[in-house]
Design goal:
The structure holds 2 protein chains of 2 kinds.
Chain A lengths: L15 H16 L5 E5 L1 H10 L2 H6 L2 E6 L11 E6 L4 H4 L2 H10 L5 E6 L5 H9 L6 E5 L5 E4 L2 E3 L4 H8 L6 H15 L4 E5 L1 H16 L11 E6 L5 H4 L5 H9 L5 E4 L1 H4 L5 E4 L5 H6 L4 H20 L6 H38 L2 H13 L3 H13 L4 H14 L5 H15 L4 H10 L10 H12 L2 H14 L5 H8 L28 H12 L6 H6 L4 E5 L16 E7 L4 H14 L2 E6 L5 H6 L7
Helix pairs in contact in A: 8-9, 14-15, 16-17, 17-18, 17-19, 21-22
Chain B lengths: L1 H21 L11 H12 L33 H4 L9 H5 L4 H4 L21 H10 L11 H13 L3 H14 L2 H9 L2 H14 L2 H10 L3 H10 L7 H11 L6 H30 L3 H5 L11 H11 L11 H7 L4 H14 L3 H8 E3 L5 E3 L5 H10 L4 H8 L5 H10 L3 H11 L2 H8 L7 H10 L9
Antiparallel strand pairs in B: 1-2
Helix pairs in contact in B: 1-2, 6-7, 7-8, 8-10, 11-12, 13-14, 16-18, 18-19, 20-21, 22-23, 23-25, 24-25
Classes of the chains: A alpha/beta, B mainly alpha.
Chain lengths: ~625, ~450
């Protein structure tokens, strides 16, 4: 193998195919209902639908009018109503039977169809049956599993995954994840290696494997060679950190939805807000998305100067040159100008917001927590944050970070902080605390470290398999994050006394100003480097195990040729991943000559993650 | 494009039809074979990417997927009879039992001619049934009538890791078993139990859920579950009564205190709201005229209520419900918290005298002194955010202990007197001269610096 020149990272597969597949299936479903019909679309499904089909496409298939699902009697002239429902939440479409029954009361008999995406559940059908409208309403499903958000990001658009699986313990999305993998495997596979960690990853792997066995296999050239599956709860610290890489920061502040962000008038310096697609097509964005925020301003102003120079070229031009300039360059320059002013506006607005909330002090506290340094000061900072009724989610985020990094709060701190939190933000957050505890995000330390002692003692006595089960049992009693030990073991927190040059990042820690290498990404790096989990036994033990590394075919596969596909790694996050993690993986890819494709159940960040823990949405 | 999609669609259709022919048992189809059809249409549209590479063994190995939580063996569980060595509580023993010929006997003969198929519909094993449910094929649960069969089916669904199927089986069990039996069996099946709880939550079967928790002695969960319902009560009086009713629920001791607070809080808010609304509309009190209330105080957090009370009811006697002192005492608000909130409210009203009084303490000799449970630099920050004038700010900047911090704050907020006096006290002539360069020539602070610098009695250190 030539190690003199590091090969360029391979080309990414073309994921637009996935969009076409989804669209084709939707069209097929619409054609199953001949004649004109109205389409009702659940709000959550709007943006994803926009990415794959437009109104014209729908109209071509006899869709008369488009409505947003609102739970009130349908006023529609069409006698057929196709309802697009973004799956469950049962609570949301619980009222659907009323709609049908109201129609009946009026003596109207419309034909209804509910199309569930990406799949239907027996519980939904059961409800229709119980309500006596099974039959009046027919159901179907639109297997819209995967939405490519960018060249290297594919989303399942299932933000509910996190709560459903990790909090409620409902495995309804496990097979969905397996099916999504199966789809990717049959279009871009066959995969040759699968690594993973986490209970859900294991189950998703099994579900996928079964589906592969059920279907037929075709031999084709693989475009994606390796797969890494990871459960979100393997690393809950990373998504709770403030994002400081441009794309992540934009997501934290403006919330990117389905690859699209709405910039408020503050940013656009006009009287209206505009929606902007944020992806690699945006040349300016593409260059700054992975940069630490402190570097972005410098970059943008350099860019602005270049642009000025390009414009200035005009002054010395004759007519002919001017003509060429206008026809060839001007459009591009104008486009760039527009993008540039947009991102400068966004940066300024973010700066303003962040200075107002004393961002520096906040980051300092976060970094202290990650380092395990001056914890008492951190606690009083959090306390004051709560006392002053600053953003509730922020307070909760800091509390959770404290608990995760410190293996739980001391009982007296827990009680006092909880009481103050309830006083400041409302007593109904008792329910939130119960959820956070259940998930292990915010817990009280167990008196004494008896559990650990017992665990390790028992662990030594019995064999591995049983030890794994015991760990499960213990973890259900006290979900421990072991963050400090993991940090030491994997060198996640670099020494703070060294200067970190953010212009020339030396490792993935740059995404958190050099203070912390995201655990999730570090694990991926380590496993790829070692081609498995060998040597990481202690780490996996602290992460409650459930790691695996499997190779396709039991024989002869070792001799296969090293192709580009082997350097394309699909990383699937079950429970969501952040833009910062994606940036870190892009960095890792550049360093190692690899390309990462991120498949996630949804793009997440601290606010989304914590908001999904709130129970007051009655 | 359209042509392409048409073609793809047509191909899907032919595929679906093909399947229907093949298996005429399936009258209802779970939309065919979704993934299959997609990959099929991919084959059509993207024939270019297909290559006839070498066919190698692409199958992946099975991995051990442990259930989320170990099952405790239950003395009651009939299923344990089935599970052989089930005392260790692993589902493996269950699948092992399939190796047992006596059980295999009742597996269907799958190679019967198609025409006879229908007669055997109900003979699918739990494993086959679960598989069919996963694939969206026709299935039947009616034949699972004995408790053992039902539980076998449930365990099989759990082993398949498909929440959709687990819930479907649970719905069947809910309909066909008495709740006592179902609850009892669920105790030892944590995964199924969590699906059941989630299902009941989603369809809003509150009562059943409460019974379930009760039967499992999960009293705290039960209490919280019932408490949660207050969110659905709109009317404040009904909500108060609801919360009062909650007081008897078996919360943990800490939570019980919080729920008590919740009730007390709403009770008081109702009284305050009624009173203030009346006062405001009658136009009796200046404060409401000057600062009309923006929203009702109902359902606001304790601290917001305290802020409100410091804003509109400052100085009322301790006895009244709406007085800050009373709220402070009732809800055990810490000194620090009380001060922060009170400060915010009085500063907002620009009641600087009240602000001053907050920090003033008298010692036994009658001298006054300013004290604060939080650093004065914080106080300055809060006052500044409430647009306090320099005259007010400088008093507090002066109280900052750390000299460097004091000077930097003073510079930030342009408290000249503080800076000048501090340098003077430090006998730092150099800094004072530097500072003279920063202030406006001829201004009062300029003159003050000149005066000090020309004072011959001062002994400068530099």
């Amino acid at each position: 193998m030539a190690h003199s020149v590091r090969r360029d990272a391979p080309e990414l597969p073309d994921f637009s195919l996935l969009k076409r597949l989804a669209r084709d299936q939707l069209i097929y479903l619409l054609e199953q209902l001949p004649g004109r019909k109205d389409l009702f679309i659940e709000a959550d499904l709007m943006s994803p639908l926009d990415r794959i089909a437009n109104v014209t496409t729908l109209k071509q298939h006899d869709v008369d009018k488009l409505y947003k699902v609102e739970h009130k009697p349908i006023v529609s002239t069409s006698d057929q109503t196709v309802r697009g429902c973004f799956l469950y939440p049962l609570t949301n479409w619980f009222l659907f039977p009323d709609v049908v029954n109201a129609d009946k009361a009026f003596g109207r008999f419309r034909r209804y169809k509910i199309i569930f995406s990406p799949q239907k559940f027996y519980a939904c059908e059961n409800l229709l049956e119980e309500q006596g409208i099974f039959g009046d309403v027919t159901t179907d499903e639109w297997s819209f599993y995967l939405l490519p958000l960018d060249d290297d990001i594919i989303s399942l658009e299932l933000p509910e995954f996190f709560r459903d699986y990790f909090l409620e313990g409902d495995q309804r999305w496990v097979r969905t994840a397996g099916s999504a993998l199966h789809l990717l495997h049959s279009v871009y596979g066959p995969f040759s290696k699968v690594y993973g960690i986490g209970r859900c990853s294991k189950m998703a792997y099994e579900s996928w494997r079964e589906q592969v066995e059920e279907g037929e296999q075709r031999a084709r050239q693989a475009e994606i060679g390796n797969v890494f599956l990871i459960d979100r709860d393997v690393d809950l610290v990373t998504p709770l950190c403030s994002q400081v890489v441009y794309e992540g920061l934009v997501d934290d502040i403006f919330r990117i939805k389905c690859g699209c962000v709405e910039f408020c008038p503050d940013v656009t310096s006009s009287d209206k807000s505009i929606k902007v697609m944020l992806n690699s097509q945006d040349k300016v964005f593409n260059e700054i998305r992975n940069e630490h925020f402190s570097q972005v301003f410098g970059f943008l102003s350099q860019k602005a100067r270049n642009l000025q120079t390009a414009y200035d070229k005009r002054s010395g031009m004759d007519i002919k040159q001017m003509k060429t300039f206008v026809s060839e360059e001007l459009k591009g320059l104008k486009q760039e100008h527009r993008l540039l002013s947009l991102h400068i506006g966004a940066s300024e607005s973010m700066m303003k917001k962040k200075t107002k909330q004393d961002f520096q002090e906040l980051l300092k506290t976060e970094h202290s927590l990650l380092e395990g340094f001056e914890i008492r000061e951190c606690i009083s900072y959090i306390e004051e944050h709560i006392n002053r009724q600053v953003s509730m989610v922020e307070s909760m985020r800091l509390l959770c970070l404290l608990s995760l990094t410190e293996n739980g709060l001391l009982p007296k701190d827990y009680r006092s902080l909880k009481a103050q939190f309830l006083q400041s933000y409302g007593i109904e957050h008792l329910l939130t605390f119960s959820n956070l505890k259940q998930l292990g995000l915010l817990v009280e330390q167990q008196p004494g470290e008896t559990l650990t002692v017992m665990e390790s003692r028992v662990g030594k006595l019995v064999n591995d398999k049983t030890a794994g089960k015991l760990t499960d049992a213990f973890s259900s009693l006290a979900k421990k994050s072991n963050f400090r030990a993991l940090g030491r073991r994997l060198n996640l927190v670099p020494k703070s006394d060294e200067e970190y040059d953010l212009r020339v990042p030396r490792d993935m820690a740059y995404i958190f100003s050099g203070a912390y290498i995201p655990l999730s990404c570090k694990l991926i790096e380590q496993v790829l480097e070692r081609d498995g989990w060998t040597g990481l036994e202690e780490v996996t033990r602290m992460l409650n195990g459930h790691e695996f590394a499997v190779t396709a075919g039991s024989n002869g596969s070792d001799a296969r040729v090293k192709t580009d596909s082997q350097r394309i790694i699909l990383v699937m996050f079950l429970g969501g991943c952040t833009f910062s993690e994606i940036s870190a993986l892009r960095f890792l890819g550049r360093e190692k000559g690899l390309k990462f494709i991120v498949v996630t159940t949804a793009i997440t960040n601290s606010a989304r993650l914590l908001e999904s823990m709130l129970d007051n949405h009655a | 494009m359209l042509k392409e999609s048409k073609r793809a669609v047509n191909s899907i259709r032919s595929l679906v039809e093909e399947e229907d022919e093949e298996d005429d048992v399936e009258k209802v189809s779970w939309s065919g074979e979704p993934v299959g059809s997609i990959s099929w249409s991919v084959k059509e549209t993207e024939s270019s990417i297909r290559s006839t590479g070498e066919v190698r063994d692409q199958s992946f190995p099975k991995i051990h997927t442990a259930p989320s939580l170990p099952k405790n063996s239950s003395g009651y569980s009939l299923s344990s009879l089935f599970k052989g060595k089930a005392k260790t509580g692993s589902f493996q023993s269950f699948s092992e039992s399939f190796g047992d010929p006596s059980i295999r006997n009742y597996a269907p003969e799958l190679r019967k001619p198609k025409s006879e198929y229908k007669d055997y519909v109900s003979d699918w094993t739990p494993e086959e049934t679960v598989k069919r449910m996963q694939q969206g094929k026709v299935y039947s649960l009616e034949k699972f009538r004995s408790l053992q069969d039902k539980l076998l089916l449930l365990d099989e669904a759990v082993n398949a890791h498909d929440g959709n199927v687990i819930t479907a089986v649970l719905i069947y069990l809910k309909k066909s078993l008495s709740k006592e039996i179902l609850f009892r069996e669920l105790i030892t099946r944590e995964i199924a139990l969590r699906h059941y709880i989630h299902y009941l939550k989603e369809i809003g079967e509150q009562k059943l859920l409460v019974e379930l928790f009760k039967s499992m002695d999960r009293t705290e969960d039960m209490a919280l579950m019932q408490y949660r319902d207050h969110l659905n009560v709109r009317d404040e009086n009904k909500k108060r009564d609801f919360l009062k009713n909650c007081l008897s629920f078996p919360f943990s001791p800490d939570d019980a205190t919080h729920v008590q607070d919740h009730y007390t809080l709403l009770e008081r808010q109702i009284i305050i709201e009624a009173n203030d609304k009346q006062v405001e509309s009658s136009g009796q009190a200046d404060i409401f005229k000057k600062y009309p209330r923006k929203a009702s105080i109902l359902n606001m957090p304790i601290i917001t209520t305290l802020y409100y009370s410091c804003f509109y009811h400052y100085g009322e006697s301790d006895g009244t419900f709406s007085s800050p002192a009373n709220i402070r005492k009732t809800f055990r608000i810490s000194d620090k918290q009380f001060l922060l909130t009170c400060l915010g409210a009085r500063a907002k009203l620009k009641a600087w005298f009240d602000v001053d009084a907050l920090f003033t303490t008298k010692n036994w000799l009658g001298y006054t002194k300013k004290r604060s449970p939080i650093g004065f630099h914080r106080i300055v920050d809060i006052l500044q955010k409430n647009n306090a004038p320099v005259q007010v700010l400088q008093d507090y900047v002066n109280l900052v202990e750390d000299v460097e911090q004091k000077i930097s704050l003073a510079q930030k907020y342009k408290c000249h007197d503080v800076i000048i006096n501090t340098y003077r006290d430090l006998k730092d002539r150099q800094q004072l001269i530097v500072y003279r360069g920063k202030v406006e020539r001829g201004s009062s602070e300029y003159r003050k610096i000149e005066e000090i610098l020309s004072n011959s009695q001062l002994r400068w250190k530099n």
